[in-house]
């Protein structure tokens, strides 16, 4: 399962570097370089340099590059949104299904984790820690990209509504992080407070305009919010 965690971390780090709605080619390249560097560090520190593990990590790097290119194409050149979404979902399913047959991160990374003196980490295995850390990175910028792709596919482009419902790119990662953290702690029911609070806070903005504009904003809010929450919930079974 730690290879899946590594891929989530690679995606998260790459998108944190490269993602902006107006990002140019340079930021895309920098994001790809960050993903490659994180993969190389995993090979060196996680004792993956021997056997087929190096090839597996190269495969993860290729998947990450495919995600970066296809998602940029979909959002900036009106390419098909199903391509990056399918790549992301398919890659995640394959890695999760084959977790028992793929090598785990060990080496110096495991030694570092075993040496941590953090009470909250007591009793938490390294594999679970890696998935939680990778999931948290994924839920920041990468999840924002996924939400925008889904909105575009649903006919509610973010550019048409985000100027009215401001703060989505900041609130989204925050609410996903809280939902994921509460779920990991076994308090997923408490996440309903976040869902209810967001609805109450956004309600005046949704009702501010009249006519068809209200319907467009409501669709944007519902599709974006449900996708955002679903991403956090889908990662919980992996932990």
What does the model show?
By secondary structure, the protein is an all-alpha fold. The protein has helices at residues 2-18, 25-45, 53-76, 82-97, 107-114, 126-138, 141-153, 158-161, 168-184, 191-206, 212-235. Helix 3 (53-76) runs antiparallel to helix 4 (82-97). The protein starts with a helix and ends with a helix. The mean pLDDT is 78.
Q: Evaluate the radius of gyration.
A: 19 Å
Dominant shape: globular
Number of helices: 11
Fraction in beta strands: under 5%
Mean pLDDT: 78
Compressed to H and E, one letter per element, the order equals HHHHHHHHHHH
Cα end-to-end separation: 9 Å
Helix-and-strand structural type? mainly alpha
The proportion of residues forming helix, as a percent range, comes to: over 70%
- Strand tally, please? 0
Largest sheet: none
Low-confidence stretches: none
Summarize the structure.
This protein has 239 residues and is mostly helical. It is built from eleven helices and no strands.
Topology record:
Elements: H1 2-18, H2 25-45, H3 53-76, H4 82-97, H5 107-114, H6 126-138, H7 141-153, H8 158-161, H9 168-184, H10 191-206, H11 212-235
Q: Tags for this entry?
A:
239 residues, mainly alpha, 11 helices, 72% helix
